[in-house]
Amino acid sequence: MGLLSRITALFSSLSNTQYPWPALDIVLPGDCHLHLVGSIHMGTRDMAPLPGKLIDKLNNADALIVEADISEGGSPFPNNTDELPLEQRLSGGDWEQVVSLTQELGIPLNQIDNQPAWQIALVLQAYQAQRLGLRAEYGIDFQLLEKAKTLAIPIIELEGAQHQVEILTRLPEGGMPLLTDTLTHWHTNARLLQTMISWWMDSPPRTNVALPNTFGHDLYDVLMHQRNLQWQHFLQQLPAGRYVVAVGALHLYGEGNLPGLLKYPTK
Q1: What is the pTM of this model?
Q2: 86: number of Cβ within 10 Å
């Protein structure tokens, strides 16, 4: 690519149209146009249908790119119930909080007692989201996937559900840091979910916003920053074209965010 083309791509990547949903446009060298959408994996009824202008973006795209195609259903989680009883793996205070939350949320404790800690964390987070009125069928990426199939738009996965599970199974101590962080930041995470809903229902952030931290440093590096780096490399290898890229909204903001890595790649 010539110098002029690279300069044009750089300036295009720095000037973004404002959208009434969390999103921004980036043009990569090689005439690759990305519309990055900050998805919420579970949404409220009022978040459907998707905005008409977003559907237009999708209809004009060469492909929809998502973290994983979750539209096929089925659980990628392993049926692993060989862990020690949860009470033996937690501190007294954390165990009491888990018992209290399972009672409050209506989760049968015996169904999660021997699961890996990371899986228990995801169960608790999913029930918390449901308590706030969120449902998977109203999630942004799910709606985009369904619409892409209706429009016969190709779907590309950044990693896939199975790879996501592999990331979780490689967490230390069976994913105990994810469970303890979930318990520690329980109320903060609820407020963060409500904030992200407001980005779709009211107004998205106009700049890189400061968000509350619900992960410890090491966990943030594995679940956010390292994945952003892998996605950056993947997206930079795309052929020329127009792509709608839906990733979790938190990947668009904060330290090591995906747009920043794409705009200012390190050598």
Answers
A1: 0.91
A2: 20
